Amino acid sequence: MNYPVFKGAGYILVHTPDMIVRNGSTCSIERVTNPDSEFLKEVSNHIRSYEEVVNYLPNQVYIGNKTPDELKAYPMPWYDIKDEQGQRHGKFGQIVPQDEFLALMKICDAFDLVKLSEEFVASVRPKIEENFKELAPLFDKLEGTDINDKEDDFEALVHEGKVVGYVKKAHDVDVNLNAHVIFENLVVKASGVISALELLRSYKINPEDIDYVVECSEEACGDINQRGGGNFAKSIAEVVGLVNATGSDLRGFCAAPTHALISASALVKSGVYKNVLVVAGGASAKLGMNGKDHVKKGLPVLEDVLGGFAVLIGENDGVNPIIRTDLVGKHNVGTGSSPQAVMGALVANPLDKANLKITDVDVFSVEMQNPDITKSAGAGNVPEANYKMIAALAAMRGDIEKKELKSFIEAKGLPGWAPTQGHIPSGVPYVGFLIDDLTKGDKNRAMIVGKGSLFLGRMTNLFDGVSIVIERNSGAVEGETAGISKDEIRKIIAESMRKISQEMLEE
User: Fold this and answer.
1) 322-350 confidence digits (pLDDT tens)
2) pLDDT confidence bin for 481, thresholds 50/70/90
3) Choice between 492 and 398, residue whose per-residue pLDDT is larger
4) CA nearest to 419, candidates 382, 390, 387
């Protein structure tokens, strides 16, 4: 069977210190319910600088400057490590400063809803022209204006504590197009655009080769008649210059990225499209989500970045890791919600299809939340909890002995390094490293697991999750024989038949 492959991955973080206080859900709710709280008075004193965010070890792993194995060697908490020097750019992507991101929101604005001051534009334009040359055809959109003439409904854009612009509403009465929603959606779009650009840069992908885009973030764009009508995917493709692509949005809370990888792989496997881009921007609402706990404990507000990613799935090239579309795990409606039932459905069931043991998988990429963030908020170490459940399942099945639980977790698990941006940590952060590990490294098989909490939408209490197995490419590509493709074979046969016919006529 000819399987699709991972052709590349791009990852970005955006440092957004002012958005934490102004746009994050925790601070926004606090301003309404308890405007004089000590938390609101104190939170700004716990926000890290751009340099601190760049130097933070998990962030360097996210963009590919350090590996998960290297991160394992450092003692926790990682936020206490002050002597590491990070870089803005990494193998897989970059960490974008807030001022540049605000300018990119303006560039991504198709309806003139973002207004920036002339002073701010003058200061940031040279940075955009230097760091985002691919967007040169859109640089004319980056122009300043008088920001004092604001309408009643607007979302302020703040940098270094100063209002440098605003987002205006897109409709007089439609709440789905108010300034706050437009702001959140432009955040998703702009961070998705940067993620896609980083993928194209890192792997030298021709934008014209991409046929389809699947966007899988957690926001929704639409109007009063269709609140989630979309389409982030096509709007991102337009800015990035994917002129031969169309696309659509896929939603599934935190499980959406893995759903999207499976859907994109199926589209390629079926032959509908040759190259499908899976992309997601970040969620401004989740900035500072656990900020109260962090501030209470005297820690920095660790949820200070937006996340984004892009993954390209294409036809088998005989080199890159293959995506086993026949080895997919899924949490069915009737599966149940016990840990054993969930892990059985997501981990054991797809492996059973190929008569594989859990130990036959070299690495599992699960919910890769950074434990620095979650442990200090009382939620524990999420990746480790997942690995303990997988190890327990392996022991129950007889794949390992109980005394091997700890060594199994150490060998098959990864430390969490992704920001708690909902969908961002869900399995996908490892794909960049996976490509290296299953081509140049010593690993042969991996599993990506995505899980989601559907109750948040108040439509069902069901749990959700999907998984898929990835393997090292054997180098054999179906349809090729000794380097000759099916089309070439057909041409040879046709030419031979013509010669035979000609000879018969001559006789």
Assistant:
1) 999 999 999 999 999 898 999 999 999 99
2) very low
3) 398
4) 382
Closest C-alpha to 312, from 431, 187, 443: 431
Q: Taking Cα atoms as reference points, which of 311, 299, 345, 377 lies closest to residue 450?
A: 345
Name the β-bridge partners of 418: 369
Name the token pair of 38. Answer: 């000590």
With vertex at residue 61, the alpha carbon angle to CA 105 and CA 261, rounded to the nearest 5 degrees, is: 70
**Do 219 and 185 contact (CB within 8 A), yes or no?**
yes
Segment 393-405, tens digit of pLDDT: 999 999 999 999 9
Number of Cβ within 10 Å of residue 36's Cβ equals: 8
Beta bridge pairs of residue 364? 447
Six token digits for residue 190? 């702009």
Q: Which residues pair with 471 in a beta bridge?
A: 322, 445
Give whole-number Cα distances, 433 to 150, 229, 364, 429, 461, in Å.
Answer: 46, 34, 12, 8, 34
- Does an H or E element contain 349, and which? helix 349-352
User: Residue 136: CA atoms inside 13 Å, Cβ hemisphere, count?
Assistant: 3
Of 146, 86, 92, the C-alpha closest to 119 is 146
Structure-block tokens of residue 207:
């934008």
| CB half-sphere exposure, 78, CA atoms < 13 A | 27
Among residues 58, 71, 64, the alpha carbon closest in space to that of 413 is found at 71
Task: Give this prediction's pTM.
Answer: 0.93
The DSSP annotation for 436-492 comes to HHTTTSS--EEEEEEEEEGGGGTS---EEEEEEEEE---S--TTEETTEEHHHHHHH
452 is written with which tokens?
Answer: 């989601």
Q: Helical H runs in 164-290?
A: 179-203, 232-240, 256-270
Element spanning 15, H or E: strand 5-15
- Contact (CB, 8 A) for 346 and 330: yes
Percentage of the chain with pLDDT > 70? 95
